[in-house]
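Hey, quick one: can you model this chain's 3D structure?
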Amino acid sequence: MKIWRVLATIILTLLMAISFVLPAEAFCGFYVAKADTNLYNQASQVIIAKDGTRTILTMANDYKGEVKDFALVVPVPVVLNEEQVRVGETKIIQRLDAFSAPRLVEYFDENPCQIRDRGLVLESAPAPAAGAARARREDESLGVTIEASFSVGEYDIVILSARESSGLETWLIDNGYKIPRGAKNLLQPYIRQNMKFFVAKVNLEEFENAGFQSLRPLMIAYEDARFMLPIRLGMTNAEGEQDLIVYLLSPKGQVEVTNYRTTQIPSNVEIPEFVEKEFADFYKAMFRTAYNQENKRVAFLEYAWDMSWCDPCAADPLSSEELKQAGVFWLVPGQPQNVFLSRIHVRYTRNNFPEDLRFQETANKQNFQGRYVIRHPYKGEMECDAAEQYKTVLRQRQEQEVETLAKLTGWDISDIRKKADLIETRPLPWWRRIWR
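Sure thing. Here's the predicted structure for all 436 residues.
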């Protein structure tokens, strides 16, 4: 069992191009691919729905291994009772991921010889039995208090408070939680903040009787002014870098990280056609380059949008019922949805992110999406004066796409040019221009 790997998995619980196009008021291309969490070997996902001091936190659970070995330890700001904890649905996290993932879109150039009066357009282990007198005395001697104990779905849960980290570490070890070395030092800051500890294990009998194939997400509801996500515990025995996707739902607008810089992922760039078949490799290389350029201490905004619509849509917007399942609690029946989604992607290690993530709600409702464009050139017959101009502009555009891709990914530009397989752009012979 690697409970801290589990914890890391749970709580951690998209320049220019000129072309001949039709003028349009809305997106007229085609969505063709998305950079969802399947791109990463280990991408933790968390949903935070917050309005004022009220919060519902959903922790995705893609634990790999025997469920009997599953354990979860999460610092929480208040003591939770059974009514404040429930089991969620994995498909809601999958829906949010599909809706907000960075996406690849494509456009198709028209035959320049058929364009009339259109100028060039620039686009941019089992839980202990609480209540036994002996166990209670032992817990008290360690400075640990069991504030609550209950079961929800397939989980047995206890809420702990502690006076000092060594006692909490001992309690967890004595009760079957395998704590890695160094955990005591990471527990202490939460104790100083008077935070409690949400501890969960799988109730094997309930899990087997229900016939579940995998563990479902856990949702907790609480009231507290603090807007944060504890990630430090998951770094105790983590190997290398970890990716965290946080879906932040607010009635006000964008949510941003306050104790690290929040910046938009590079977006709205045009890239060569061959990337359509290599989009996963492209996005991972682009993210890595941007991450390194920011000295590995930045939170990337991959998506910010009003949940009632999208353009382009990688997936349909979530319905009111789905938003409720995602933790949104402020919707009023019969009134328009006021839900703004911010998707923040953090890649971190214990060295470059020494603090837990802290957030703030803002009134900024500017839409943003990680969006990458493939513009397919027209490759049919074209014999007109406009065709020569089109080919000249096209060659410039394709060279710009090659240079852009090299800059974004760090890939060798000569290799990119070979893969781009640029179309023939030599001008027509003079006699063909006259005798067409």
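One thing worth noting: The chain is about 25% helix and 30% strand.
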